[in-house]
Amino acid sequence: MSIEVRIPTILRQYTGGEKAVVGAGGTLAEVFEDLESRHPGLRERLVDDKGLRRFVNVYLNDEDVRFLGGLETSVTDGDNVTVLPAVAGG
User: What is the pTM of this model?
Assistant: First the structure.
């Protein structure tokens, strides 16, 4: 199973500069674990002991995963995951 994960510029240091990487798994948590095995340090930037980090937005096929089931959201072959850091300022 192959899930495309789009990586924001600020996290590309963990993917060797790649804009998108491929992960595998049946849930979002499994995809992040799979990515961690090939891109060490990436998972801890996305997830903490409570789940998704507060200032990281994750979308599955353009749907916010916080409304779909968080890390337990099911994924299937061909899905797209987009990681977007929240931006603040004024």
Answer: 0.89
Q: What are the domain boundaries of the chain? A: 3-85
Ranges assigned E (strand) in the chain: 3-6, 20-23, 47-48, 51-52, 56-60, 63-64, 80-85
Q: For domain 3-85, give the fold.
A: Ubiquitin-like (UB roll) (3.10.20)
Distance CA 70, CA 56 (A): 12
Q: What is the pLDDT of residue 1?
A: 67
Burial of 15 (0-12, 13-18, 19+ CB in 10 A): middle
